[in-house]
Amino acid sequence: MSTSTATETLDVLIIGAGVSGVGAARYLTTEHPARSFAIVEARGVAGGTWDLFRYPGIRSDSDLYTFGYEFKPWRDKQAIADAPRILDYLHETIDENGLTDLIRYQHKVVSAAWSSEDARWLVDIDRLDTGERIQISARWIFCGSGYYDYDEGFSPDFEGRERFRGQIVHPQHWPEDLDYAGKRVVVIGSGATAVTLLPAMADETAHITMLQRTPTYVIPLPREDDIANTLKKVLGDKVGYAVTRQKNIAQQRLLFELCQRFPKQARRVIRKINQSQLPDGYPVDEHFNPPYNPWDQRLCVVPDADLFRTIRKGKASIVTDRIATFTENGILLESGEELEADIIVTATGLNIKVVGGIDLTVDGEPVALTDTVVYRGMMLSGVPNFAMAIGYTNSSWTLKIGLLCEYFCKLLGHMDRHGYDSVRAVADPAMPTRPLLDFGAGYVQRALGSLPKQGPKAPWVMSMSYYTDRRLLRGDVADENLRFATARDRSGERVTV
Q1: Domain end: 346, 368, 390, which one?
Q2: Which among 51, 101, 272, 319 is placed 20 to 30 Å from 8, CA to CA?
Q3: How confident is the model at residue 298 (pLDDT cuts 50, 70, 90)?
Q4: Do residue 147 and residue 190 come from a single domain?
Q5: Which Pfam family, an example, fits this chain (predicted)?
Q6: What does the pLDDT read at residue 5?
Q7: 65 near 184, Cβ under 8 Å?
Q8: Residue ranges making up the domain that contains 231
Q9: Taking residues 169-188, what's their average pLDDT?
Q10: 105 and 11 in one domain?
């Protein structure tokens, strides 16, 4: 990379042109129209997750009345929507808010260095299209890059992998020209990706098998929300969307709370639903009875019961076993059974990468994420003028992003009114901490040792409750945990509040 000497100056640099980054840009546009900002995106298009993943059937497993933005009604009839519809919605948001020219594609952020002297970040960015490294100076960074690695998905080291004579595919890197017509396909995994792939591919394959080590809770939901569509017809798109959104937020929270408080009863209900959708005599307890309680990991949604319908038709099957080794012709299981395959899909999860793997320094000192504690779910202790967006794991991601963006804009306004140019959250060194995410999913558990921490109570808790966060983030902007600073006064001394 050659280095450009010119440095652009902005008020806010937004990293990522996905759901979080575009949302932040819209809130800045409406709440702080005079403030300068830009969005930098490492890829060549906007959309984040919804453009990166190209596997068959990709869709949201949250309803779009809660996954959509509060400020922009979801008008499509589908509530559990596929990726093209979500991308259309996102691009409409970009166009309607005049954000098109503010997004810089092929701009990958490498590092960011905070200077207390200048009260600014100096951000190193590689322009992937020109091979040039540029720098941007920004008062604030809003990191909307999500929390997983866009470059590489997680794939375990499978014994004998190199012996397999067929094709091995990870859903994060789905080949555009993959031909699976008439082929035998084995999908390794039991999460949202796997339960999406089976019904999406089954009609074209010779047979498709989901190979899981551990079952997952799977619940069917209608792809279209009849109540929502009726409300929109009667009340109009805007009001109908708002009412449906509150209804679905309450439903999501109620389901989570019931599962947490009454896990045995919830397990029985889910099992009964599964049994009703499967063929008579199907081994439900073998393939749909997880060893953990509901919502210790995310529930998998199947729209219009498509997974169950595919199994009933005999086009797909589920095998619960452990892999002994890959063979030339497929996978040998610990039970001794061999699954023959032409294509193996490793739907084995993601790698977490908080703040996009950016190297952060504060006044020359590297920031060790594991030494930081997250404040109000968006700031890292000891790191000034830096916000990050991590959504909910037990509900729609965007519900939290909207609240974080609101609070971010309120915080900027508070600083303007008082003449502050920087703020950092300060955690009590004696405060007990625990892992950032209370979630049993494998991709989370693998990464806990590299993530920031959370504290025992608000505002240091990484809350997963919309109602709790709404009170916190729409309440007072400042508290005793924030340290604000003004610019240098004429004597050259920094005044800290």
Answers
A1: 346
A2: 51
A3: confident
A4: no
A5: NAD_binding_8
A6: 59
A7: no
A8: 161-346
A9: 96
A10: yes
Local confidence band at 387 (pLDDT 50, 70, 90 cut-offs):
very high
Give the number of domains in the chain: 2
Name residue 300's beta-bridge partners: 218
- For the chain, the residue count is 497
169 and 78 both lie in a single domain: no
CATH of residue 421:
3.50.50.60
- To the nearest whole number, what is the mean pLDDT of the chain? 93
137 shares its domain with 69: yes
Domain-ending residue, one of 346, 375, 398: 346
Do both 280 and 172 map to the same domain? yes
489: pLDDT confidence band, cut at 50, 70 and 90?
A: very low
Vertex 96 angle, CA 106 and 237, to 5°: 130
What's the pLDDT at 439? 67
Question: Is this model's pTM higher than 0.90 or not?
Answer: yes
pLDDT digits over 186-234, tens only?
999 999 999 999 999 999 999 999 999 999 999 999 999 999 999 999 9
SS3 readout for the chain: CEEEEEEEEEEEEEECCCHHHHHHHHHHHHHCCCCCEEEEECCCCCCCHHHHCCCCCCECCCCHHHHCCCCCCCCCCECCCEHHHHHHHHHHHHHHCCCHHHEEECEEEEEEEEECCCCEEEEEEEECCCCEEEEEEEEEEEECCCCECCCCCCCCCCCCHHHCCCEEECHHHCCCCCCCCCCEEEEECCCHHHHHHHHHHCCCCCEEEEEECCCCCEEEECCECHHHHHHHHHHCHHHHHHHHHHHHHHHHHHHHHHHHHCHHHHHHHHHHHHHHHCCCCCCHHHHCCCCCCCCCCCCEEEECCHHHHHHHCCCEEEEECCEEEECCCEEEECCCCEEECCEEEECCCCCECHHHHCEEEECCEECCHHHCEEECCCEECCCCCEEECCCCCCCCHHHHHHHHHHHHHHHHHHHHHHCEEEEEECCCCCCCCEECCCCCCHHHHHHHHHCCEECCCCCCCCCCCHHHHHHHHCCCCCCCCEEEEECCCCCCCCCEC
What pLDDT score was predicted for residue 441? Answer: 67
Contact 141, 423 (CB under 8 A): no
**Residue 290 pLDDT:** 95
Q: What is the pLDDT of residue 430?
A: 95
Are 197 and 287 found together in one domain? yes
Q: Are residues 113 and 196 in the same domain?
A: no
pLDDT digits (tens, 9 = 90+) for 408-436: 999 999 999 999 999 999 999 999 999 88
- Residues 280 and 226 reside in one and the same domain: yes
> Does residue 360 belong to any structural domain of this protein?
yes
Summarize the confidence of residues 323-339 as an average pLDDT: 97
